[in-house]
Design goal:
Low-confidence stretches: 16-23, 243-260, 262-284
Radius of gyration: 25 Å
CATH superfamily of one domain: Schlafen, AAA domain
Structural class: alpha+beta
Largest sheet: 9 strands, mixed
Mean pLDDT: 79
Number of helices: 15
CATH class of one domain: Alpha Beta
Strand content: 25-35%
CATH topology of one domain: Methyltransferase, Cobalt-precorrin-4 Transmethylase, Domain 2
Oligomer: single chain
CATH architecture of one domain: 2-Layer Sandwich
Distance between the termini: 56 Å
Shape: globular
Length: 443
C-alpha cells in the first residue's frame, strides 16, 4: 500500500467517523429529582420513575439518545432557556407557560388532590393548614377556591411525602394518576382521606418556544410506542387496581395516548364514505377511553357551542371559538371536535345549548351549528365535515369529525382575516406572513 493510498484511506475513515458524529443525536431531558413515582433519584443516584421509563422507551423507538438532568421545579425554566437542557420530561400546560414553551401530546393524566387527616370533618368552617409545593399551580388553586385554608409552602415533593408518612400534617396536596376506564386509583395515605381534587391535567413533554425540530422528534418517537409497551410500564409501578366487576379487562394506562392516535388514523384511512365513517367508528369505540386521554393535536373538547357556564346564559361570542377550532383542523391534518365535554374530559352534555334555541332539541342545535359553519366558513366546507350527536355517559355530545381541507380556510373579511392552525393541542393564529409561508409548504 502506497503512502498516498494510506493517506486517502485515513481521510475516508475520518470523514465517515465525522459524518456519524454529525448525525448522532442526543437530547438532555430535565426531570424533577423528587417527584415520585414520576421522576426521582434512586439509591444509586440514577433517575427513575414512570416518565424515565417512558423516555428510555422513546429513546429506543426514536434512535435518539437521552441524558437525564435532575433539576428542581424552580430551575426548570431557566435551564431550558439557557440551553443546559433540551426537553422538559413532563410538565402541566398553562397559558403562561405556553408563551415560552411548545408542548407535545400528553404522556400521563394526573389529579392534584387535597388530603385531610381522618379526624378533620368537612364543613364550611373547616380551618386547616395544607402543606404543598411553593409557587405551584396547586397553591394558586387553594387560594382561589379554599381561602379558609392556610398554606404551608415547602420546597420539595419528597418533604411532603416523608412528613405525610409521619402524620405531621392537617392536610397536604399531591399529584396522583387519574382513574381510568374500569380501574380504580391508588388509595389515600394511611390516616388521611381525599378532601377535594384541585384540578386534573396532563404531563406533557415541552421544549423551548420555536424549537420545532426537537418537538417533531418527540412526536415521531411517541407515535412508535405501542400500547403493550405502555402497559408494561404501568404494571411495573402498580398505579391502578382492576375493579372486581371487570376482571376480564386488561390493564390500560392513562398515558396510553398512542392507542387513541392509532384508532383515529386507522379510522380515517379505512373509511372511504363519509356517511359510513362515524357510524363504524362509534360502534367500535369506547368513547370514555378517548375522553380520558384528553386533548391533543387531533382532539379538542369544548364545553358548549354557545352556552356560557360562567354567566349562565347564551353567549354568541363562544360560537366563534367553535368556528376557529374547525378552521384550525381544516388547515392542519384534520381531527375531532367534541362539543359538550369540558377541558378535563368530563361530559357536560348539550342540554343548555338545546334550551338556547327556539327549537329546543338536537335538530335545533344541528341547524344552529350548520348555519354557523355556512356563515363563517362557507357551505363547501361541509364536504370535509361529518357531524353526529351521540350519547356518552347518558348525555348528548356532538362530535364534529374534520378532514384536512383542500385549500386554506380564512375567517373574516379583507384586512381582518384570520388564519388558524392546530398545534400544541390548541388552535393558534398565524400572522399574514406566517400564514403565507405555511400555505406555501402545505398546499
Amino acid at each position: 500500500m502506497t503512502k498516498q493510498t494510506l493517506s486517502s484511506l485515513i481521510v475516508l475513515v475520518l470523514l465517515i467517523f465525522s459524518v456519524n458524529l454529525v448525525h448522532a443525536k442526543k437530547y438532555r431531558v430535565a426531570c424533577l429529582h423528587d417527584y415520585y413515582p414520576y421522576t426521582s433519584m434512586n439509591d444509586q443516584g440514577e433517575a427513575s420513575g414512570i416518565l424515565i421509563d417512558w423516555w428510555e422507551l422513546w429513546s429506543k423507538k426514536s434512535g435518539i439518545d437521552v441524558e437525564f438532568v435532575p433539576v428542581d421545579l424552580q430551575n426548570v425554566g431557566s435551564m431550558l432557556e439557557s440551553g443546559e437542557v433540551d426537553i422538559l420530561a413532563g410538565v402541566y400546560f398553562t397559558d403562561e407557560r405556553a408563551d415560552k414553551l411548545d408542548f407535545s401530546d400528553p404522556i400521563l393524566r394526573l389529579r392534584s388532590v387535597v388530603y385531610l387527616r381522618n379526624e378533620l370533618e368537612v364543613s364550611d368552617s373547616l380551618k386547616a393548614t395544607i402543606t404543598l409545593l411553593s409557587n405551584s399551580i396547586a397553591e394558586d388553586k387553594i387560594k382561589a377556591e379554599y381561602p379558609q385554608l392556610k398554606i404551608n409552602g415547602v420546597s420539595s415533593y419528597s418533604l411532603i411525602r416523608e412528613e405525610a408518612k409521619l402524620y405531621e400534617y392537617d392536610g397536604f396536596v399531591y399529584d396522583v394518576p387519574s382513574t381510568f376506564g374500569k380501574y380504580t386509583g391508588i388509595k389515600a395515605p394511611k390516616g388521611y382521606y381525599e378532601y377535594a381534587t384541585l384540578f386534573s391535567s396532563r404531563l406533557r413533554p415541552a421544549v423551548l418556544k420555536g424549537n420545532k425540530q426537537v418537538l417533531k422528534d418527540i412526536m415521531s418517537g411517541l407515535n412508535k410506542i405501542t400500547a403493550q409497551e405502555l402497559i408494561v410500564i404501568a404494571e411495573k409501578y402498580n398505579i391502578y387496581k382492576e375493579d372486581k366487576n371487570w376482571k376480564w379487562i386488561g390493564l390500560i394506562t392513562t398515558f396510553c395516548l398512542t392507542v387513541v392516535l392509532i384508532v383515529l388514523l386507522v379510522y380515517m384511512g379505512k373509511q372511504k364514505k363519509k356517511n359510513q365513517r362515524l357510524v363504524e367508528f362509534e360502534s367500535n369505540t369506547d368513547w370514555q377511553v378517548i375522553l380520558d386521554k384528553g386533548e391533543n393535536d387531533l382532539i379538542e373538547f369544548k364545553s358548549s357551542m354557545r352556552w356560557d357556564y360562567r354567566q349562565e346564559k347564551p353567549n354568541k361570542a363562544l360560537e366563534m371559538v367553535i368556528v376557529k377550532t374547525i378552521s384550525a383542523f381544516l388547515n392542519t391534518e384534520g381531527g375531532m371536535l367534541f362539543i359538550g365535554v369540558d377541558d378535563d374530559g368530563n361530559t357536560l352534555g348539550l342540554e343548555p345549548d338545546y334550551n338556547s334555541y327556539s327549537k329546543k332539541s338536537r335538530d335545533g342545535f344541528l341547524l344552529g351549528l350548520t348555519n354557523l359553519i355556512n356563515q363563517h366558513l362557507g357551505k363547501r366546507i361541509h364536504q370535509f365535515l361529518n357531524i353526529n350527536i351521540i350519547s356518552i355517559n347518558e348525555k348528548d355530545v356532538c362530535i364534529v369529525n374534520i378532514d384536512k381541507g383542500d385549500k386554506p380556510v380564512f375567517i373574516g373579511k379583507s384586512d381582518k382575516e384570520e388564519f388558524y392552525i392546530r398545534t400544541s393541542a390548541s388552535s393558534q393564529p398565524l400572522s399574514m406572513r406566517e400564514a403565507y409561508e405555511y400555505i406555501q409548504s402545505h398546499w
